[in-house]
Amino acid sequence: MNLEQLQDKLINDFNFDRVLEILIKLDEKFTKEDLIENAKGLIKMTYTSREMDDVFFQAAYLTATRSYIDGCEVHYSLNFSIDIQSNVEFELPEPFKHRIVSEKEFILREEISSLLEENILKLEENKDDEFLKSNISKIKEILEILD
Is the pLDDT of residue 101 over 70? Predict the structure, then answer.
């Protein structure tokens, strides 16, 4: 989803008329166009932010946020301080590799752990085997690197 589509979706789903009613009761001087321009700017800042963590930006009574869900989905939100909001969620084209353990890495870790157990069992049978001791030490180092 590009920036324009995201802005359109959030702004079209957001109830600016209700926000204006509340702001008028608070004796605030905003127009619907002012609020929409603020929202567009906030959404653009969340969209273009290079942070890989949750971000939020505020202007007047509006807040725009972006957060990632399990490294494979992104969630955008436009909020008025009295819980009037619009949300968009969509899957990312590719999950974050540095936040998720891949299936291959999981299988590799399991196989290496199994190999460690086998070597430990064989060492119990032959406590003087220097080759097995060396294997166990190396396998432990590999597992530490994977963690």
Answer: no
